[in-house]
Amino acid sequence: MKKLLCLALAAVMMLSFAACGAEETNTLKIGYTIYEPMNYMDGDKLTGFDTEFAEAVCEKLGLTPEFIEINWDTKFVTLDSKKIDCIWNGMTISDEVKANCDVSKAYVKNAQVVVMKKDVIDNYKDAESLKGLKFAAEAGSAGEAAIKDNGLDTDYSPVAAQTDALLAVMGGQADACVIDITMAKSMTAEGTSYDGLTYSIELTAEEYGIGFRKGDELTEKVNKAIDELKADGTLDALAEKYELNLAL
Fold first, then answer.
1. Which of 197, 216, 223, 241 could form a disulfide with 212 if both were Cys (CB 3.0 to 4.6 A apart)?
2. Residue 25 and residue 63: Cα distance in Å, rounded?
3. Beta bridge pairs of residue 47
4. Tens of pLDDT, residues 208-224
5. What is the mean pLDDT of residues 39-51?
6. In the chain, which ranges are E strands?
7. Which superfamily is assigned to 110-206 in CATH?
8. Using CA atoms, how far apart are residues 195 and 185, in angstroms rounded to an integer?
9. pTM, whole model, 2 decimals?
């Protein structure tokens, strides 16, 4: 009898721990990938627009941010498993995203652009002219979706991260890649490791949102904090600092 009682108590405790979310632990577990200028390393410190944005929201909500690097291709599985409380990493709001998680209000405007070497990019003026080229993009990304939606996937290779797509173009493994304009602008600027590349054709226009588990009350609480940060000028200052365009 005692053994059965102990087993029952253990089961209740396990369920209690499993039910704990951000508000019970006072920690918001934030899923991210390295994606400049949204989240990236400056020496040994994680920084970026989304990093600072998340920290400001957590301060409003009385939560401690815990940044957890994830595999972007399995982000929804990671969210549903409760290893993270949200996906906060320049995530494009799409039908797939809305089907898999609750999404905050849009906060940054973005586009998917074609990145190529500077000496050849002027030869291509539209999506039709790009057909037949070798493309790379991050698996599961909006860039991958743009490639497929525009019929550019005849010779397409998915890679683990947007930076890997840039490396593929630099190294000649791909003729072009499709990444977020926010990253393209930052990573191909003069003096960077990728300043031999540039971007041109916009394949899609889109907006970024933060993903939460379905039915999580955090979505509305974060939306309220976003409104407050917009009203007090914090978001405008961050957008200016990282050269982004707000969707608010």
1. 216
2. 9
3. 40
4. 999 999 999 999 999 99
5. 97
6. 27-32, 40-42, 45-47, 64-69, 86-92, 102-103, 108-117, 135-138, 156-159, 176-180, 197-212
7. Periplasmic binding protein-like II (3.40.190.10)
8. 10
9. 0.76
